[in-house]
Amino acid sequence: MYGTDYLTADGTAVRDYVHVADIADAHLRALDAKLDGGSAVAVNLGTGRGRSVLEVVDAARRVTGRAVIPMVERPRRPGDPPELVAAVGRAETVLGWRASHSSLEEILSSAWRWHQAHPQGYRGG
Fold first, then answer.
1. How far apart are CA 60 and CA 70, in angstroms?
2. Start-to-end Cα distance in the chain
3. Which of 16, 19, 4 is nearest to 72 (CA)?
4. Domains (range + CATH), the chain
C-alpha cells in the first residue's frame, strides 16, 4: 500500500475501480459506434465513485472470508494524487454506457471466483 498519509478520509489513496466486463462493454460500444459511421471518441471509463485502498482491502476480507489479508505499507510514490475518479458523463452521453458491475463486492467476487478456479493463473489450465 503506497501511502497512508493522503488527505483522504482514511489516509489511503482513492481510486475508481471498474469491472473488466464493464470496460469490455464500453469498448464494444465504441467499436459499434465507429462501425456505424461515427468518429473515434475518447471518454473516461469508471463508476464515477472513488473507493480508498483500505475500503478495497475491507471488501476483499468480506468477499474471501479471510480476516487477514497481508499488506505491506510503503511511502507514497512521487506524483501519486490522493484521489482519481472518472468523470463518466461523456461515456454515458456518447456511448450510452454506464458501469453495471460497480460495487466493490461484485468486482472482487468475480476476481475471487476466477482466482479460485485458476490458482496458477492462465498457465495453470
1. 11
2. 30
3. 4
4. 14-124 (3.90.25.10)
